[in-house]
Amino acid sequence: MIKHIVLFELKEFESEEAKTHKLEDLKTALLALADKIDVLKSIEVGLNCNPKEDYDLALTTTFASMEDLRSYAIHPDHVKVGASIREVAESRACVDYEF
C-alpha cells in the first residue's frame, strides 16, 4: 500500500473569510474524488487550525500501488481539482511511502 500525503500553503487572500471559503471549496472538491476514482482507496482532507503553522491544507490518500497513484495523478477529475489548487497555492510539499 502507498500513503500519499500533500501539504498546501495558500497565497494571501483579501480576507480570512475568503481564504476559509476557498479552503472549504477545495476540501469538498478533493473529497468528491472518492466517488470518481476507483484506484483511490481512502482520502482525508484536513484544514489547519494552528495559526503558528504555514501550511493550510493537508491531503492524505492511500493506494494499492505506485501505479495506482500514477493513475490517480493523471485522472481527469484529479487534474481538474489540481488546477484549482494551483491557482491559489503558494507552496506544496509531498511524501509518498509504503506501509
Provide tags for this entry.
99 residues; alpha+beta; Alpha-Beta Plaits; 3 helices; 39% helix; globular
> Distance N terminus to C terminus?
6 Å
Instruction: Give the class from helix and strand content and strand pairing.
Output: alpha+beta
Q: What is the string of SSEs from the N terminus onward?
A: EHEEHHE
Q: Give the integer mean of the pLDDT values.
A: 98
Give structural notes.
- The structure is a single chain.
- This protein is α+β, with helices and mostly antiparallel strands.
- The chain has a single domain, classed as 2-Layer Sandwich (Alpha-Beta Plaits).
- It is built from 3 helices and 4 strands.
- It has helices spanning 16-32, 66-74, 76-88, and strands spanning 2-10, 42-47, 57-63, 89-98.
- It has a 4-stranded antiparallel β-sheet with strand order 2-3-1-4.
- The mean pLDDT is 98.
Short structural summary:
The chain is of the alpha+beta class and 99 residues long. The protein has helices spanning 16-32, 66-74, 76-88; strands at 2-10, 42-47, 57-63, 89-98.
Secondary structure layout:
Elements: E1 2-10, H1 16-32, E2 42-47, E3 57-63, H2 66-74, H3 76-88, E4 89-98
Antiparallel strand pairs: 1-3, 1-4, 2-3
